[in-house]
Amino acid sequence: MNLLIAPDSFKDALSARDAAAAIAAGARRARPDVIAHECPMGDGGEGTLDALLAATGAERREARVQDALGRPLTAAWGWQPGTRTAFVELAEASGLQQLAREERTALHSTTFGVGELIREALDAGAERLLLTLGGSATNDAGAGMLSALGGRLLDSDGHLLPPGGAALANLAELDLSGLDSRLATLEIEAAVDVDNPLLGSRGASAVFGPQKGASQAEVEALDAALSRFADLTAKAMGTDHRDLPGAGAAGGMGFAARAFLGASLRPGIELVMEQVDFPRLLANADLVITGEGQLDGQSLAGKTPIGIARAAQARQVPCVALVGRLGQGWQAAHTEGISAAFALADGPMALDEALSRCAELLEERAEEVVRLFVART
């Protein structure tokens, strides 16, 4: 039996690499002779850098940058000297996983550290950049990144705005005269894990702000602040990208990547599958097991399990998803190639317990899935 194991990370619990290892261990308990190919995946969020480095053999480098709250942090990025390609994962600098739950603030968190990582890539001589957007703790529409790269965001008195999305309500002028000139020749692909626009009921603030600590009143304030930013950006750049699918990714970083960096936005899972040569891995698979923290109706917008399932369906390979939670609308995944989906919890369970037992539960569910597959065949 050839088993292809291609999970994303389980947020706050396991990396994609550790999740793949747990699934493989469970599969071997059911079938010791299973040929299990572990292929950690990512759709732009945390862990995507590891998947890209493993697939490309790029160098892992580190830089001292700011986290989402402006504190010093050592963040990783990737460098492939032969192709002059850099890999930058937003979540390494400005990720939600870097903050304790009580620290999360959508109002004041910043993407400044992401801009610092891009600057590191430019200093290394990068000609091409793969920028992965997902898993962010931020809702500043990339304003922090823009500041780190030489842009100035000013209020009506000519003072620099403080960090965070809320401050954009007071934006009066965008000064781009100091923007790093090397960006003009940098080819950028931005990997996004959602197709949301920047603003409105499906926008960055409304959909993702609450998980970053925003109340309903704060969501409304942030949406208005980002609208102000979008207005002045359109005036400065001559093009309005607020409605672009993916503009709302990573708290609006998709918008900034397109508007200020000229990036092309691509579904992250497609970009990663291309880098790991996923069709080749899939060619010999009898069964695919994927997974991540939650499967729900929004997963169809570009999350890892759906991208994996679509590829498997095209090759008529069954695909099972093991997930921390089955959320509202998850059944739609069946039409996208998910043969079956299972939540990990084996009974009523507090979140902290579920997180601490994630590897154990993944092993158990994988064992049962493989036992059932073997019995069926």
UniProtKB/TrEMBL annotation:
Pfam families: Gly_kinase. Keywords: Kinase, Transferase. SUPFAM superfamilies: Glycerate kinase I. GO terms for molecular function: kinase activity. NCBIfam families: glycerate kinase (TIGR00045). Belongs to the glycerate kinase type-1 family. This is Glycerate kinase. It comes from Litchfieldella rifensis.
